[in-house]
Amino acid sequence: MGHLIRKKRIGISLIIAVTLAGGIIFTSACSAAGKTPQQQSSRSDEETTMETLELKGVTYYLVFDETQLRAIGKDGYGLDRNYLQQADIELSSDEWVPIGTEDEPFKGSYNGNGFEIKGLTMTDPKAEIVGLFGYAEDAQLYNITLRDYDIMSAGRDIKKKSVSPVLVFGMGKTRSYDNTVYPKK
């Protein structure tokens, strides 16, 4: 009997060791690529892909990183879809292009889910629309937290400019609520 218990313990220990080693190898590969395991599994370097989640008959596209955030409205990710942020996102210093234009407004929903978007930068003095979302129509933007954003440099000459951190123009039944903004110090 004691021999049988010892074999089971060894078998269980072996399974645990293999599982842990696999997780360490996967995490190490992700770290070497500069990605979290979620980012590694949700996108490739060739194209931007997003995982989806179905809740109460509604499909949400999951946003884990900057590449996915910048893909909204491009790369086949329509302006009429529902997006759910899944992690804090640190933006590079690349110039931000607002989501949604006057001719093609954002018409979906974006739930920041309590996570932060850090480092939104707009420095182009020619930009007339300055913010995370430019135009939205019948959309919902909520639980978005912007931290250390720098949009004022684009709005120094405020004539003929519209500046707002989260949403510049909301049309129709657009709702923007429970959002928090912290400008760069």
Order of helices and strands: HHEEHEEEEEEEEEEEE
Outline the low-pLDDT stretches: 11-45
Largest sheet: 6 strands, mixed
Head-to-tail CA distance between termini: 68 Å
- Total domains, how many? 2
Counted by DSSP, the helix tally is: 3
Overall geometry:
globular
Q: What does the average pLDDT come to?
A: 79
Rg estimate, integer Å = 21 Å
> How large a portion of the residues is in β-strands, by DSSP E?
25-35%
Q: How many strands appear in the DSSP assignment? A: 14
The helicity comes to 10-25%
How are the strands of the biggest sheet laid out side by side?
A: 1-2-3-5-9-13
Protein name: Lipoprotein
Organism: Hungatella hathewayi
Describe this structure in words.
The protein has 185 residues and is an alpha/beta fold. The protein has 2 domains: 1-34; 35-183, no CATH class. Helix content is 23%, strand content 28%. The chain is built from 3 helices and 14 strands. The protein has helices at residues 2-32, 37-42, 66-71, and strands at residues 52-55, 58-63, 82-85, 89-90, 109-111, 116-118, 129-130, 133-137, 140-142, 145-149, 162-163, 167-171, 175-177, 180-183. The strands form 4 sheets. Strands 1-2-3-5-9-13 form a 6-stranded mixed beta sheet. Strands 4-6-10-14 form a 4-stranded parallel beta sheet, with no helix packed on it. It is globular. Mean pLDDT is 79; it is low at 11-45.
Q: How would the blueprint of this fold be written?
A:
Layout: H1 2-32, H2 37-42, E1 52-55, E2 58-63, H3 66-71, E3 82-85, E4 89-90, E5 109-111, E6 116-118, E7 129-130, E8 133-137, E9 140-142, E10 145-149, E11 162-163, E12 167-171, E13 175-177, E14 180-183
Parallel strand pairs: 2-3, 3-5, 4-6, 5-9, 6-10, 7-11, 8-12, 9-13, 10-14
Antiparallel strand pairs: 1-2
